Amino acid sequence: MLNVGKIEEGFVLDHIQAGKSLSIYHQLGLDKLDNTVAIIKNARSGKTGKKDILKVEVDINTLNLDVLAFIDHNITVNVIKDGEIVEKRSLVLPKEIRDIIRCHNPRCITSIEQGLPQIFYLADEEKEIYRCRYCDERYRKRDGEL
Amino acid sequence: MIETNALRHLMTPMDFSVDELERLFDKADDIALHPAQYAHICEGRILATCFYEPSTRTRLSFETAMLRLGGQVIGFADASSSSASKGESVADTIRVVSCFADICAMRHPKEGAAMVAAARSGIPVINAGDGGHEHPTQTLTDLLTIRSLHGSLSDFTIGLCGDLKFGRTVHSLIHALIRYKGIRFVFISPPELRVPDYITEMLRNKNIPFEEVIRLDDVIPDLDLLYMTRVQRERFFNEEDYVRLKDFYILDKEKLSRARESMYILHPLPRVNEIAVDVDNDPRAAYFRQVQYGLFVRMSLILTLLDLTDDHINHGLLKWQSP
To answer: pLDDT tens, position by position, for chain B (323 residues)?
Structure first.
């Protein structure tokens, strides 16, 4: 079994659905950081069999983690200080998502107009329904998407 | 309402609060009563009608509205006669139009196009229809018509008849009406064309009374207002159902004989055959008056979005202002 050491300062994203860690790595902009990041794929999980984990040595407050709740709110966020978990942060669905997903409505202006930001707003928090800011079409996840 | 750099635009009918709508309708009433007072208020102002798809009534209504306010009109009536045919974006087109005109009415087949324009515009933008999404000035027209004929926007039973599934005017009208008190909805449609579930769910959650029926005959005596829409053959799954059901949704003199004397008939037009022509002379047939109300509400809207106040009317303060 592969061992990845503890981090001293930063955060750990645990219980990521297996195979999603790389997308999250890019969505959070971790590829642009100079800090240490460990991407652990297909780790053993009691609950789901397999899971991904991200360990990031950076102050959690410098990143916007809102999008994680949209991607998968089973992800747990552990804030680490001096090598210990000091906080488990809960995820809240963001009110707005920008340039993370695309509108699939072929009648939407985003299907033809170049350079538009893809904006979705949280229409129903309870049912986790997001709608396109332009056409109000409900977002439905397709295969291979976040 | 989108507001950019203190500009006001109209994207959906819900952009106006109930109070703002009252003021808009009051002004529309005043325009109807005193048209001469408004005949020069927009002198030196230009409305651009940017219509990327054909429209007769809406475009003519906007253009007439500006002309009756003393302003002038530029624009195009279909995408092929605009730079869109050369691949120009909506965002670029509105930037260019902003250099020429003081206000723009835009119709576009793509949903959200007017919103894109508003975000880049230097002048107020009115959504004159964006695909199957919104057509706010039709809803404002419907509301003003109801307010004028019924006397208020509360305490009535309205029947909505025909294609309630795909009809954007019906959906927008329901959303606009739920902000008023004492309104009961009766949805009259074939099962295939029922009002979408998210609307009935919303009405249930807000405890707004409604019922769904198949036959107009069954409910027409209970209605204060009847809003007719077209039932198109192609919306049915099979020809047999169309033939079986289509007559339920044709309003003729016989059906109308069972309605109240005070019931008004509205229709967003164009009408095909869902209202028999012999109904047109009935005093309850209000759909052509509705077109007139549409003109007054667009005149009022232009004045509101251009922020032309009563001072401009009363004291002749209007001068052309460079953008």
So the answer is: 454 557 999 999 999 999 999 999 999 999 999 999 999 999 999 999 999 998 889 999 999 999 999 999 999 998 887 777 778 999 999 999 999 999 999 999 999 999 999 999 999 999 999 988 999 999 999 999 999 999 999 999 999 999 898 888 999 999 999 999 999 999 999 888 899 988 999 999 999 999 999 999 999 999 999 999 987 776 666 788 778 777 788 999 999 999 999 999 999 998 888 999 999 999 999 999 999 999 999 999 999 999 997 666 654 444 444 43
Q: Is A137 close to B115, i.e. CB distance below 8 A?
A: no
Q: Which residues of B44-73 are buried (b: 16+ CB within 10 A; e: fewer)?
A: ebbbbbbbbeebeebbebbbebbebbebeb
pTM summary value: 0.87
Which residue in B89, B116, B133 is closest to A136 by CB distance?
B133
Contact A110 B115 (CB under 8 A): no
Same topology between domain B3-133+293-315 and domain B136-284: yes
- Fold classification of B136-284 is Rossmann fold (3.40.50)
* Residues paired with B111 in a beta bridge: A108
Q: Does domain B3-133+293-315 have CATH number 2.30.30.100?
A: no
Radius of gyration of chain A (CA): 17
Inter-chain residue contact B89 with A113, CB threshold 8 Å: yes
Answer yes or no: is the ipTM higher than 0.95: no
Going from N- to C-terminal start, the domains of chain B cover 3-133+293-315, 136-284
Question: B90: nearest CA in chain A?
Answer: A113
